[in-house]
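DM from R.C. (forwarded with permission)

"hey, sorry to bug you on a friday — could you get me a structure for this? deadline for the figure draft is monday and I only need the backbone to look sensible"
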Amino acid sequence: MDLPLTTDTMTRTTPDLPRYSRRWDADTASLPETRNAIADLLARVRPAPAARAVQDAQLVASELVTNALKHAPGPFTLHMEVVPDPPALRISVTDSSPRPPRHRPADPALAMAPP
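My reply, with the result:
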């Protein structure tokens, strides 16, 4: 998943775009470590992304890691990288499940829940 970072321009010539990768066993994963890794990675981006973009990225990464913990039998890896054009943070999780993700219909009760 790519999350937009800013409306300002980053160039393709930006050296060493920030990246992060971490592998966990299912029993050692850390959601706080995931959120901190996002904040640390995005702190190196110039121009700095808005605080809301950092919070959104932390939420997305936490959800992806949580899904891997709940549905995969073993280790998984979190990958994050800043991409320059358009400026975004790419977040992905690979896990050890041999089954591909399956699409589930939306739960109408959740759509009706008050904010």
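R.C.: lifesaver. The chain is about 35% helix and 25% strand.
me: no worries. Residues 6-14 have pLDDT under 50 and may be disordered.
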